[in-house]
Amino acid sequence: MECAARGIVEEPCASGAHRRCGSCGAVAYCSKGHQFIHWKVHKEECARLATQMSRIDMLSQFPFTFSVEPLALNHTNRSMRCLFLESMKVHLKGLWKSECMCGPDIASVKDPSITTEWNMERSLCPCTEPENPVPAPLASWEDYFQWRSLPLHSPVAVLLHWPLTLYHCLQLSRVRTSRYDGHDTLHIHYLGPEKELLQLAVFAELRALFPGVHLRIELVGPAVPRSRDGEVVNISSYPNCSGESCHCRSSIASENLNCSAVTLRIWKGLYHERYGDIVKDSNPHLILAPNAGVAAYPSWMPTIEMIRGIGVPAIFTDFCEEAAHLASCCISSITGQPLGLPIQVNPFRQPIEENNSALYIPCYSNGFVFGM
Ligand SMILES: [Zn+2]
Ligand SMILES: [Zn+2]
Ligand SMILES: [Zn+2]
Ligand SMILES: [Zn+2]
Ligand SMILES: [Zn+2]
Question: Where in this chain does the record put each MYND-type domain (predicted)?
């Protein structure tokens, strides 16, 4: 953890920031002096951070029976994520490759063919059509795992939080396909994709979640490598399990039985700069910006300005409640209105905590949801 006063104090910090604010416990300081100086900044946020800290236990509640605690932290230099993935025997394998820091980064992957391997036995992952239609609406990971007949020791939620968060946001925005165009195509504009670009096959699960619907997802963001601009990915089957004889590997499985399909199109650039091209072929029902960091990147401001103008429901997620709070301030300053969808916990957040180098507050990929 870094000293919270770093950047606003003139003299350098002492090594190590071990003094935590006694009121919120969310920030740390290298010295009493730095804590004193920082109070003029921190007093505005201290009570709010204290409330966020009080949700640590609630946020860490998941139905899963696997343990995310490090098995052997005395093996230093290994992150908790790596140890967890190793314990699940999926470290640096298949779709899991980019789940930890040792995996490839988005820019370095030149081969656009998408990874479609769960690297898990059949009973642990959804590799075929669901046995029953989706009971609407799924409200939690318990609901999802029960419907898909998956055991609670399976870690697939770590990857499936992408499509399930999209599903949840569509429920929240009350988008109904028929109400819009009657031909059962849902258009999503998905802003700021990062490691999802190396895990695109997990969006196949949307076929099971929206039977009979064609989902068109336009992924647009500055992290898209130039070589992938314009790439189209059609998904008509689920990622494969490791079972050699499982029928997810036969050609019959890839035949489109429930006529759902997911088409992903990839665009490099900022949304407000590419929107004119994207919208020619895809008028959005929902704009989704996962793990957006609205307050951290000034380039969001013209994008939010534009979204306000086009009047399409837009939902954002962020890692922690404080980021969501700061984003809501930015958004309201542009729209002149409070959020249309107030900040709330995402039941389909990723079930492994993220490291946060600046605050002790709880932090999860797709942790909190809010919307214009
Ligand atoms: Zn300091
Ligand atoms: Zn405090
Ligand atoms: Zn690793
Ligand atoms: Zn299979
Ligand atoms: Zn955070």
Answer: 1-46
